[in-house]
Amino acid sequence: MASPASLPQYKSDFISACRAGNVLTFGTYTLKSGRISPYFFNAGLLHRADLVRAISLAYAHTLAAEPDLKFDVLFGPAYKGIPIAAATTLGLALVDEKRFGQISYSFNRKEAKDHGEGGIIVGAPLKDKRVVIIDDVMTAGTAMREAIDITEKQGGTLVGIVVAFDRMEKVPSPTDDDGIPRPSTIGEFRKEFKVPVLSILTLDDVSKSLAGMGSETELRRLEEYREKYRASD
Ligand SMILES: O=P(O)(O)OC[C@H]1O[C@H](OP(=O)(O)OP(=O)(O)O)[C@H](O)[C@@H]1O
Ligand SMILES: O=C(O)c1cc(=O)[nH]c(=O)[nH]1
């Protein structure tokens, strides 16, 4: 992926990291929502030290760009949200230790532990805290709804959401693939939860630079998919 000159440095660095890690791949993928996608953004591949640095700084700068967003805890839902929350907490201290030095992170266990310290939360308790949920991708928003539910049940207050990649897809419906545009998942979350929903990159950010990445057939399938699940906002 080439990085368009107009993008801020942290976004260009993040695109370069995605490229180095082959994070965006073409094929046939069943998504959590059940949609069959011709491309996939796999944040799990950003595991090398230099790529972890790029992703943690990109999330940290995305959060730092919101001066009014005050929060105490970054909550990363299992599983891919876990290393992202930990790495971004470090990234925040590197970007602005004065502002972010007291931020904590936590994550959930997918299955509650019934011995030792017990419970489903590891890391900072969420009770009475201002919580930003951090994850890799939002498509239909099911994973994010689960994370919001955990946050509320633990007594935390949701104040923001940040993801690496916004696939810019419409909210799911019973006639999901009717090709009729509906509001985007992220747009609906902004309206429903009245908190900032941030993403480092959107599909639009990278689509111009996709031309060198996939074959003509892969790019045509991507465009067909985009048309089918295109959001109206
Ligand atoms: O917006 P949605 O339609 O819910 O899909 C996106 C979510 O699905 C995947 O997580 P998954 O729940 O598969 O768990 P993982 O982190 O363990 O891979 C992905 O990491 C996103 O979090
Ligand atoms: O919707 C998903 O399940 C999904 C899409 C994507 O691009 N990457 C990912 O990890 N999950």
TrEMBL record:
<comment type="function">
    <text>Catalyzes the transfer of a ribosyl phosphate group from 5-phosphoribose 1-diphosphate to orotate, leading to the formation of orotidine monophosphate (OMP).</text>
</comment>
<dbReference type="Pfam" id="PF00156">
    <property type="entry name" value="Pribosyltran"/>
</dbReference>
<feature type="domain" description="Phosphoribosyltransferase">
    <location>
        <begin position="68"/>
        <end position="174"/>
    </location>
</feature>
<comment type="similarity">
    <text>Belongs to the purine/pyrimidine phosphoribosyltransferase family. PyrE subfamily.</text>
</comment>
<comment type="pathway">
    <text>Pyrimidine metabolism; UMP biosynthesis via de novo pathway; UMP from orotate: step 1/2.</text>
</comment>
<dbReference type="GO" id="GO:0046132">
    <property type="term" value="P:pyrimidine ribonucleoside biosynthetic process"/>
</dbReference>
<dbReference type="GO" id="GO:0006207">
    <property type="term" value="P:'de novo' pyrimidine nucleobase biosynthetic process"/>
</dbReference>
<dbReference type="InterPro" id="IPR029057">
    <property type="entry name" value="PRTase-like"/>
</dbReference>
<keyword id="KW-0665">Pyrimidine biosynthesis</keyword>
<protein>
    <recommendedName>
        <fullName>Orotate phosphoribosyltransferase</fullName>
        <ecNumber>2.4.2.10</ecNumber>
    </recommendedName>
</protein>
<dbReference type="InterPro" id="IPR000836">
    <property type="entry name" value="PRTase_dom"/>
</dbReference>
<keyword id="KW-0328">Glycosyltransferase</keyword>
<comment type="subunit">
    <text>Homodimer.</text>
</comment>
<dbReference type="InterPro" id="IPR004467">
    <property type="entry name" value="Or_phspho_trans_dom"/>
</dbReference>
<dbReference type="InterPro" id="IPR023031">
    <property type="entry name" value="OPRT"/>
</dbReference>
<dbReference type="GO" id="GO:0005737">
    <property type="term" value="C:cytoplasm"/>
</dbReference>
<keyword id="KW-0808">Transferase</keyword>
<dbReference type="GO" id="GO:0004588">
    <property type="term" value="F:orotate phosphoribosyltransferase activity"/>
</dbReference>
<dbReference type="GO" id="GO:0044205">
    <property type="term" value="P:'de novo' UMP biosynthetic process"/>
</dbReference>
